[in-house]
Design goal:
The chain has 269 residues and is an alpha/beta fold. It folds into two domains: 160 residues, Rossmann fold (3-Layer(aba) Sandwich), CATH 3.40.50; 95 residues, Bacterial fluorinating enzyme like (Elongation Factor Tu (Ef-tu), domain 3, Beta Barrel), CATH 2.40.30. The chain is 18% helix and 29% strand. It contains seven helices and 14 strands. The strands form two sheets. A seven-stranded mixed beta sheet has the order 2-1-3-5-4-6-7, sandwiched between helices. A seven-stranded mixed beta sheet has the order 8-9-13-12-11-10-14. A hairpin with a 4-residue loop joins strand 4 and strand 5. The radius of gyration is 20 Å and the shape is elongated.
C-alpha cells in the first residue's frame, strides 16, 4: 500500500484542471494517503522525466516509504494524424529496482530518466479513448488501485528498451524557480570529466552565448558570476548545471526551454 504519492503533471498550479484531478484522486484514495504535486510546462516530458527520476531514485532515507510516482504529461504527440474519440498515449506501470512504483503516461521522455532502473514494465487496461480529460475520468482509478496493491489494471509485460527512449544528451533537463539550468550532462561524462575548477567556458544555448566558470559548488563563485558545476540533482551520478549566483541563468540565456541543446567549449587560457 502506498501512503505517499508524488504527482507530476503539466497543468499549471492553481489551474482548474489541477483542482478537478486532485478532487477525483482524493475521492478514490484512503484518507491517510498524502499527495505532493509538481508542475511542469505544457507538454514538457523532459522535465517530467527529470523530476520522476529525482523523486523515485532518491536514497531510502530521503524518500517516503511505499512511494508511488504518478507522471501525467500527455501531449498526444505520438501520432501526428487526427485522433478518434480523444485517443491518447497509454498509461504504463513500472516497478523500479529500489521498490518504488511509477505510473506514467507513455509520452516522450517521461520514463527515460529511470529506464535503466526499471525492473518490470507493464501496459495497463486503463482506457486510452473516450475522454478528453483522462487525468480526471480514468487515471485516478488506476492510481487508487496501485496505492492499495491492487494490480488488476496491468495488462502485458513490455520490453523497456523497446518502449522507452533513452534520456536526451546535452540538453536542459529542468529549470528551477531560481533560474538554475539543470542539464542532462552527467558529472562523469567524458566531455566534462576533465574540467578543472576555474576553467573558463563558452556556453551556447540556442542563439544565446555566454561565458561561465567551472566551479565545484553553488557558492564558490562571486556574486553575479555565471558558473557551471555539478549540481544537487542526479544522486550518485550528479548532473552539471548552470547557475548565476545572485541572479538567474535562465535570464542570462534568454529563457530557454527544457530539451534545448547546450554546447560547451573550454576557452584557451
Amino acid at each position: 500500500m502506498s501512503a505517499f504519492i508524488h504527482l507530476v503533471c503539466d497543468y499549471a498550479q492553481g489551474d482548474m484542471a489541477w483542482a478537478e484531478v486532485m478532487s477525483a484522486l482524493v475521492s478514490k484514495l484512503h484518507d491517510d494517503t498524502r499527495i505532493h504535486t509538481s508542475s511542469v510546462h505544457a507538454f514538457d516530458t523532459v522535465s517530467t522525466g527529470f523530476i520522476v527520476a529525482q523523486l523515485a531514485l532518491a536514497n531510502q532515507d530521503l524518500r517516503p516509504k511505499n512511494l508511488l510516482v504518478f507522471a501525467n504529461t500527455a501531449p498526444r504527440k505520438d501520432r501526428k494524424e487526427a485522433r478518434a474519440n480523444n485517443e491518447g498515449e497509454g498509461l504504463l506501470f513500472a516497478t523500479l529496482r529500489n521498490g518504488v512504483q511509477v505510473l506514467a503516461v507513455n509520452s516522450g521522455y517521461s520514463l527515460s530518466f529511470v529506464r535503466s532502473e526499471i525492473q518490470e514494465l507493464w501496459s495497463t487496461n486503463v482506457e486510452a479513448v473516450g475522454s478528453q480529460f483522462r487525468s480526471r475520468d480514468y487515471f485516478p482509478i488506476a492510481v487508487s488501485k496501485a496505492s492499495r496493491g491492487d494490480f488488476s489494471f496491468i495488462n502485458h509485460k513490455l520490453d523497456k528498451m523497446e518502449t522507452i527512449p533513452a534520456e536526451p544528451n546535452d540538453v536542459i533537463g529542468y529549470i528551477d524557480s531560481f533560474g538554475n539550468l539543470k542539464t542532462t550532462i552527467r558529472k562523469e561524462d567524458e566531455k566534462v570529466a576533465a574540467l578543472e575548477a576555474g576553467t573558463r567556458l563558452k556556453v551556447q544555448i540556442g542563439n544565446h552565448v555566454s561565458t561561465a566558470t567551472v566551479a565545484t559548488g553553488s557558492f564558490n563563485v562571486s556574486e553575479g558570476d555565471l558558473a557551471f558545476a555539478p549540481g544537487s540533482s542526479g544522486h550518485e551520478r550528479r548532473y552539471w548545471e548552470l547557475f548565476k549566483r545572485g541572479g538567474s541563468a535562465s535570464d542570462e540565456f534568454g529563457h530557454p526551454k527544457s530539451g534545448d541543446q547546450i554546447k560547451i567549449r573550454a576557452l584557451s587560457p
